Amino acid sequence: MKSLGRRPEGSRLERLRASPLWTGEGFRNRHPIIAGLRDPATPPPTLREFLCKSDRRVPPSPLPAVDPLEAWTRRPGSGLRVTWLGHSTLLVEIDGLRVLTDPVWGPRASPLRVAGPRRFQPVPVSLRALPPLDLVLISHDHYDHLDYPTIRQLRRRRMPFVTSLGVGAHLESWGVPPEQIIELDWWETFALPGTELTITATPSQHFSGRTLRSRNSTLWSSLVLRSKRHTVFFSGDTGLTTEYRDIRARFGPFDLVMLEIGAFHPAWGDMHLGPENALKALALLGGGPFLPIHWGTFALGMHAWDQPAEALLELAGEGGAQLMMPRLGEAAEPARAERVAPWWREAGEHGRRRGLGSLAGGALPKTLPWPLD
Fold first, then answer.
1. In which domain, by residue range, is 244 found?
2. What's the structural domain count of the chain?
3. Which residue, 137, 220, 262, 329, is the most exposed by fewest CB within 10 angstroms?
4. Is residue 38 part of a domain?
5. How confident is the model over 113-145, as pLDDT tens digits?
6. Is residue 186 a contact partner of residue 220, using CB atoms and an 8 Å limit?
7. d(CA 329, CA 332)
8. Does some domain include residue 8?
């Protein structure tokens, strides 16, 4: 099955084996898990819990969205603008360049067309309608971040694909020319030719694999985008790690911080942040305008679909964090961010009048000892 991708081999395999993060059997997280993040008394969720426990894991109606195409015809006055397109897919405009992160337009976060977590929110713009891109960033190889049908379309565009060590094997097997693939180990930097933009792969606390047999055979990363005028942090998927202090020391302060908040469970506390730990991560990074990602698109956790947003809004208000929560497709400049309006509640209100929807299921293991993404 082509959507599974391909494991690294040849010179690509030799390079990842030379990484200090390689254990001989796979990659590892460099530092111990911060004490207290995982609750040992909380058992992993079961398949029954994942599929049946709550009818609020998907919104009852589509979320409000904006067509971004008109906004994209105008350059941002501040030089930095971001458009959240769902989950961890964003278009970042930075000093005249366009960078697309973890692009997923496919209907499921799954290798299968008929099973697996199904998208409950369409992307507010078609893939073909995207403006010219200068760069694609892919943090790691999980299905909700690396999507086979999306890459098959993007491969026709002549631009670099910057990703973590080993992930290039998937891209090349799907038709991306090898000369367009740049794989980075942590703290390695790629400079986009002819520009002042650099991309640095930085630490995160996660794992990888598109099958159980390929677990941790490729690296996972957060990413720092830096131009002459702006610095942006993109978390990919991560738990809370003290290495964020090192990232701050090398690259801070940040003009925009994008951190994941969804698909959290106490049994997975070391692999995903959740709202509370996202704010702790933001503090380690030195603060800055914070746009939450990894929610509002797929039901990948046990919580209600809007719980991450509601919890973050409350916690950020208590702590004074500078929160950015634009609607899907709404192009927003961090330098001109306005007070957050909880626009996602419109779907909930509409749904209470129409009745709640149901979770789109898929083929899953009996228990879920780690996240699906």
1. 45-354
2. 1
3. 329
4. no
5. 888 889 998 999 999 999 999 999 999 999 999
6. no
7. 9
8. no
